[in-house]
């Protein structure tokens, strides 16, 4: 703990007492922070070796957008922002020249004749400038982060430093970007280019939305036209590409970090980490099942590396758990990052008592008890589709006798109707049902399972129906009622499986 406090104090002193004649030290600090979350650690005291080749790659990624003209009113390189108070940075100049010659991304740059020149320029800049000057505070070298060995191949972070960078990554990057931005604003030559008002932060550190558009078609394809989060059909006009690990948390575009989502789901999730059930689905979809396809389709526009994407996600979720953070589940709910935690629903107090004809459940102040969401406005139709919504969720102590229950996957709702009241295990009108969320990657075989089918009516409202699923031909399914008075329904493309029946709560 003391070392982590010392780390924060050192970063604050570095930004206040360091000599920042150019922006290179900010880039180096940002690059080191990124390396620390992109490399897994054995333990909190681990040292970390960072090669100069890795730093060169990261520098070029960080400066790539800076090498585009900021002001269209200035011709040629006159519209470029300077990174120091002297001549234009060699790194910026070479990147600008390559972009003017139709080099559109880092992959093309590495395959072009410009790469040896930009590599040498960047390596020389790092070695002769920030690498051995970053830790000079008030004219004195204080090698808290890594020793000054003048090694030509790598630096080695001191024990515990990489862990501190991982622990306080958001803070370090936020402070670094703000200081970087202020430095550029304060360079006299830039003030004429910037003008009175500007979107400088977005220009220097923002998204490349044109590149994001390249990811949309392949994501829609692998998600079978469904929103990654709510699994409802996507409307192309309202489909957005979401950074699964939020861009605000880790501002490097990784090709495996994207999912396609409704604009409403994306706006609701915003800069939150998604719940672990979503993370499991993302890993299965992007890092396992479709990893090769994403690499093939997106590597021309983004850095694609499954191991790095996994390492970044491991870092983000481990920090969230240490901090006791809440994870986004859906538009109305968050869950605690700690395993097995209860759904947090601020709109409904935990003292709510649910009483019905067939059973009574109470949500009491039971320390350590698993709480499940109960949706009084979702009627699981045992007949024909019935409209419902997921508003006003209430919290109930999980019923016993149904195995281990997870608040991120299991929920409660009531049956409505009599189409399922036949057979060996009849479901009666009004009974409380224990249900388990499923998704396209976690559903498995649904043959002869009792599942909740979700559909939308003409007005766009959600409807729900409980039926058994029977496969009748390749790609064709019937929805079967247990009561023979109700005819089977053919499954259509507009329907989706929401949940499987886990049990009836008596």
Please, could you describe this protein's structure?
This protein is of the alpha+beta class and 506 residues long. 34% of the residues lie in helices and 21% in strands. The protein has helices spanning 2-17, 24-38, 52-64, 90-100, 106-111, 115-128, 161-167, 169-186, 188-194, 200-205, 209-222, 263-269, 276-289, 291-298, 306-322, and strands spanning 48-51, 136-137, 140-141, 154-157, 239-243, 258-262, 326-330, 333-336, 343-344, 353-355, 360-362, 371-382, 386-387, 394-397, 410-417, 432-437, 450-456, 462-473, 476-480, 489-490, 496-505. The strands form six sheets. Strands 12, 13, 14, 15, 16, 17, 18, 19, 20 and 21 form a ten-stranded mixed beta sheet that branches. It has a three-stranded antiparallel beta sheet with strand order 7-8-9. β2 and β3 (140-141) form a beta hairpin. The radius of gyration is 27 Å and the shape is elongated. The two termini are 50 Å apart.
Radius of gyration: 27 Å
Average pLDDT confidence is: 81
Main structural class:
alpha+beta
Residues in β-strands, percent: 15-25%
Give a count of the beta strands, DSSP E runs of length 2 or more.
21
Question: What is the element layout, followed by pairings?
Answer:
Elements: H1 2-17, H2 24-38, E1 48-51, H3 52-64, H4 90-100, H5 106-111, H6 115-128, E2 136-137, E3 140-141, E4 154-157, H7 161-167, H8 169-186, H9 188-194, H10 200-205, H11 209-222, E5 239-243, E6 258-262, H12 263-269, H13 276-289, H14 291-298, H15 306-322, E7 326-330, E8 333-336, E9 343-344, E10 353-355, E11 360-362, E12 371-382, E13 386-387, E14 394-397, E15 410-417, E16 432-437, E17 450-456, E18 462-473, E19 476-480, E20 489-490, E21 496-505
Helix pairs in contact: 1-7, 2-3, 2-7, 2-8, 3-6, 4-6, 11-14
